[in-house]
Amino acid sequence: MRNPHLSEATAAGAASDVELAWDRGNDQWWDWYMSLADGPASSGPLVPLPPHDPGPLPTDGTVFAELAEPYSLTPAQVGHFTDASFVKLPAVLTPGTAARLRARLREMLDAQVDPAVGFQSLEMMWLTDPLLRRAALSPRIGGIAAALMGVERVRLYHDNGLSKEPGAGRTPWHYDAHHFPLDSPDVLTAWIPLQPTPQVMGPLAFAHGADTWQLVADIEFDKHGTSYDRRVSEIFRDRGVVVEDDPFGAGEISFHSAHCFHTAGANRTTSARMVLATTYFRDGVRVVPAPTMVSGDWQKFIPGAAPGEIVATDRNPVIG
Ligand SMILES: O=C(O)CCC(=O)C(=O)O
Description:
7-stranded antiparallel sheet; 8 helices; binds 2-oxoglutaric acid; 4-stranded antiparallel sheet; Jelly Rolls; single chain; alpha+beta; 25% helix
């Protein structure tokens, strides 16, 4: 059956045929992508969470200083990222800074996104909002990204504000190398929850192992339905892949490589699960030879960069 989120052009061909250009917005891309999640819609009452007190909210100046302050990684944390393909780091943000960013993202989503949408998204907020600009271009977060990948300099691919609203469903299993039109493994995403995120809210969950993606490399993508997500789950279960889906504490953030398979549960709480997902890449990376519809409207993030070219547009500043 044809996926209702696809245009006639992107729906054409075999279900696995993604060698086409995405011809809608990135918000519609997310609507499509989320529709590929398998499993029955969750039901039952949504759970109210205990109130979270982030303490007195910091001023802009305090937030800016915090986002500029280097974060010391231990060798064990770097080793975890290398071996597992992701790492979760405590106290990258203070609870107050996370709360300030959450409030700003909420304002921007409320102003620009249809409230009926369950998985709300906005990108490139750093171009217009000073607070979210400091977060996307944060030397603290970008410095962690560079250190984890073991590279000198990183550039921004995009920022991404995501709100999984109360009752919104699962995020399907995927890896970002399938999405980003960047021709290198040296690409990672900082997933920055803006509130404590217990399991019932659907924290990002990661398949352990730098090579785990190879177990599912032969599964045919299904642009119309849920078979890809289902097969990945089955193979991970059958092969005993360890999946980490622990809660995130206030200010804890994760970094996952472009080859890390990840998913997220439904948000079964009465509060929105709000996140900044910011992607960085090693300076010098090129555009893949042939971007696909799975890259969405990628020209918005690297305007003018053609296939095969080094990505260094003015929307991809060096961080730090
Ligand atoms: O927040 C989510 O549910 C998905 C985010 C994601 O896949 C990512 O940031 O790479």
